[in-house]
Design a protein that fits this description.
Elements: H1 2-8, H2 12-16, E1 23-24, E2 29-32, E3 42-45, H3 48-60, H4 82-95, H5 108-120, H6 126-133, H7 153-163, H8 188-196
Antiparallel strand pairs: 1-2, 2-3
Helix pairs in contact: 1-5, 5-8
Length: about 200
């Protein structure tokens, strides 16, 4: 969930409502259908690292029908509650000694972090940002709503390059409730930048 949040910028309810029928691992896309606006219903390209993580999750989970949630409760298959993720994230932040961790909002700040890092990649532009985020910030962008049905694989790969420069561990998690580990080479400063930085722009 942490990687999906940071590599897509999905909203909390969009992440919770994601079902396997909305994910194409062969085409490397996620179709966001549970959103609060027409602009929010969008097709996103996902990076190769995230495809790999979701593929391993699909292989491991017993809940893999089209209607099942991607991030289902490991015992019941129900929509995963926010408290479970929040508790695990705060434990990780404490273990990593992230400053001001009490102020970090698990979902909202992750979305801001993803969009901010995406804005800082050289391959992203304003229209791509708005389409990926599912926003309508300016009246003139209504003329470009067809972009919500397009994907931007170059931008998704650039975001992965920025956030996961050292790559992911190839060792799969042995427990569905535990996230796949990120490389031990990831520095504390980079982790703090992802999780606790003051974000450069509001999306």
């Amino acid at each position: 969930m942490f990687l999906t949040l940071h590599l897509t910028g999905l909203r909390r309810h969009e992440l919770q409502g994601l079902r396997w029928r909305d994910v194409s691992l062969t085409e490397a896309t996620v179709h966001v259908v549970e959103s609060k606006s027409e602009e929010g219903e969008r097709l996103l390209a996902i990076s190769p690292a995230l495809v790999d993580v979701l593929t391993r999750r699909y292989q491991a989970t017993p809940y893999k029908s089209d209607a099942d949630f991607v991030f289902a409760h490991p015992q019941t298959g129900a929509r995963l509650g926010v408290d479970r993720y929040r508790e695990q994230l705060h434990k990780a932040l404490e273990a990593a000694d992230i400053p001001d961790r009490e102020r970090i909002r698990p979902f909202h700040d992750a979305r801001h972090a993803a969009l901010t890092h995406l804005a800082l990649t050289p391959k992203a532009n304003d229209l791509e940002l708005m389409a990926i985020a599912g926003h309508r910030s300016f009246a003139t962008t209504k003329r470009y709503l067809h972009l919500a049905g397009r994907t931007f694989p170059a931008a998704a790969a650039a975001l992965e390059d920025r956030l996961l420069a050292d790559g992911l561990s190839t060792q799969p998690s042995t427990h569905l409730s535990e996230p796949d580990p990120i490389s031990d080479d990831t520095s504390r400063s980079e982790t703090a930048e992802i999780a606790g930085a003051d974000y450069a722009r509001e999306m």
